[in-house]
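User: Could you check the structure of this?
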Amino acid sequence: MSPDERKNLPENQIIRTSSRLGQTITLEGNLTGHEDLEIHGTFAGQINLALHDLIIQKTSRVKADIKAKSLILHGQLEGKVTAERVMISETGNFIGDIITCKISVQNGARFRGTIKVNKEYQP
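Assistant: Sure, the predicted structure tokens are below.
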């Protein structure tokens, strides 16, 4: 099913699947997908998961421009993020720029950059 077809489905009819990039995996390039993604390893490049969730775990080192429905950051991330919702946990370390509708930065999180809050998310 294409991303355009998914946009037209009610949220309760979209089948949620997920993938995992393991801790020993190092990947560079452009990553696009139509499912949720959990990163445990190292990634550099661009990530486009505009209709899905991205979780960057504690063991992760990511340097990327990211577009995702939601981002949960537990590890290290450097880059630009556009997402409907961003959560940086107490173990998260972010350097860069964020454009989002909703943001949560927990006590202990490290953040250096800018945040722009938009009313609407455009996938």
